[in-house]
Amino acid sequence: MRGRAKDIRLWIADAIAKDRSRARDATNRLLAGVGPDERQAIVARSRRQALHPSQVLFRTGERAEQLFVLRKGRVKFGRLSSAGREVVMGILGPGDVLGLACFLPSSDYIGTAEALDRGEVRVWNRHVIRRFAHKYPQVEGNVLQITLAYVAEFADRLERLVSGTAEQRLARTLTSLGVGIGTPSHSSIDIVIKNEQLASLADISPFTVSRLLKQWERDGVISKGRGIVHILSPEKLLLE
Amino acid sequence: MRGRAKDIRLWIADAIAKDRSRARDATNRLLAGVGPDERQAIVARSRRQALHPSQVLFRTGERAEQLFVLRKGRVKFGRLSSAGREVVMGILGPGDVLGLACFLPSSDYIGTAEALDRGEVRVWNRHVIRRFAHKYPQVEGNVLQITLAYVAEFADRLERLVSGTAEQRLARTLTSLGVGIGTPSHSSIDIVIKNEQLASLADISPFTVSRLLKQWERDGVISKGRGIVHILSPEKLLLE
DNA sequence: CGGAATCTTGAGCGGCTTCAAAACCTGTGG
DNA sequence: CCACAGGTTTTGAAGCCGCTCAAGATTCCG
């Protein structure tokens, strides 16, 4: 049992480490397996763009004209439902790809991407990156893999949303965020996020988020400050 | 207003018509734009398999070794949540592709696929179809498009699930099913489905489904029998 | 004509949301 | 250095939506 808990923490730390390594060259996943020369050529046709907090990269329904690769910072990807409520579908970190819709022959962005902090993206125009994808099958294969990963992630999130109580959803949201954008420190995994965003992700109200986090803090599972959550015992969150 | 309603109905009928045409050759989307000779070669390496109701094509977590294209019948795609509850992610009809996970270098199916009625699929082994995808970039492009369409659909479903009341979710589920697997008749769109499956898709209880459908029937929006729903006024469902 | 599956209906209850208000942080500018 | 204004978080009370449970009605099929 005790060994099990350690395994889980190691597993999370490992997953985070992988994420870190991926961040070293944030175009890794898009250009994985591409030769240095081709890679050079492709990168040369992109431009860098700085991001400031709450800057919008693109909005739901806009014509998909650009592909983005996030290099630094975090980006919130979501939608405004018809009721005007925000539905956050995911929070992306360095190395993630945005705007895959531009690989469809004629399509619009399916969500809105908004920066959460200062950051940087690499940008390609639609026709440029598509030409490369056509020219280098390896790139197209990578795009396919990234897209499939999205499908898997959305499937997870779907399951999470419809299953169980608010407490379970928040717990799973936290652990999954820990793997995605958490930073490990001495004895905890830290996630920079506000209650309201957690609420959107877990599909519960900010009030309930507050109450649950407070409860967990009393139990010693997490500790928290304003805009940050420290996961002390990920294993306790997982065994819900 | 009245014109608007008619537009909506036409739009749905149109979407259904497109689905029908796609069903004529159920490998259309996978092999779209592929020359006759190549198409021949690819189809030759597949085999046909008959489906009987409740037959399982594959299960969550199994190694993805086969790609399926649904030719006839309907297939339910879902998961069992940790609580043992079934989460239906979608109901697929003729022309839909299953088992995309086998395009990942090493991956498992992310859900369970189960036939709902008698039907037929075309099956390729993982390495066979991957070789073709590699050989004919057009095929790989098609796979990418199909996958992106899944992402878009899942995103829709995510939004639907977290937004609004049970009534809204069921309404949107019904219209989306109408487009996907509905058959248009003289003055209605018919969907063969049981309350319980509707309940899973809209994430509400079967009892609530019953109550809502009854209500709508009283209002003349739909009529229904056992295991079938006739949508009489899709426009009324949409303007929730 | 049973018997099984499906659907209906009602009553009670509980988890979560909503609303309102107060407490709390954090950065800013005087 | 302090005070103030902004956003964030906490807490309590009330209410409601949809679930659960139980029982009955309906339809289908052998």
Task: Describe the fold and architecture.
Two copies of one chain form a homodimer. By secondary structure, chain A is an alpha+beta fold. The first copy, chain A, has two domains: 22-161, Sandwich (Jelly Rolls); 165-239, Orthogonal Bundle (Arc Repressor Mutant, subunit A), CATH 1.10.10. Chain A contains nine helices and twelve strands. The A-B interface holds A 79, 81-83, 85, 87, 89, 100-101, 103-105, 107, 110-111, 134, 137, 140-141, 143-145, 147-148, 150-152, 154-155, 157-159, 161-164, 203 and B 79, 81-83, 85, 87, 89, 100-101, 103-105, 107, 110-111, 134, 137, 140-141, 143-145, 147-148, 150-152, 154-155, 157-159, 161-164, 203. Chain A binds a DNA duplex (30 and 30 nucleotides) through α8.
Provide keyphrases for this structure:
homodimer; 240 residues; alpha+beta; Jelly Rolls; four-stranded antiparallel β-sheet; disordered N terminus; DNA-binding
Structure summarized in a few sentences:
The structure is a homodimer of 240-residue chains. With 240 residues, chain A is α+β, with helices and mostly antiparallel strands.
> CATH topology of the largest domain in chain A, anyone?
Jelly Rolls
In CATH's first tier, which class of the largest domain in chain A applies? Mainly Beta
Name the shape of chain A in a single word: elongated
Order of helices and strands of chain A: HHHEEEEEEEEHHHEEHHEEH
How many domains would you count in the coordinates of chain A?
2
Q: Which radius of gyration of chain A do the C-alpha atoms yield?
A: 19 Å
The amount of beta strand of chain A, in percent, is 15-25%
Helix content range of the residues of chain A, please?
40-55%
Oligomer: homodimer
Low-confidence runs of at least 5 consecutive residues of chain A: 1-6
Strand order of the largest sheet of chain A: 1-8-3-6
* Major sheet of chain A: 4 strands, antiparallel
Largest interface: A-B, 37 and 37 residues
Tell how many strands the DSSP assignment of chain A holds. Answer: 12
Helical element count of chain A? 9
Structural class of chain A: alpha+beta
Distance between the termini of chain A: 15 Å
User: Please, what is the average pLDDT of chain A?
Assistant: 86
CATH superfamily caption of the largest domain in chain A:
Jelly Rolls
Query: At CATH's second level, what is the architecture of the largest domain in chain A?
Result: Sandwich
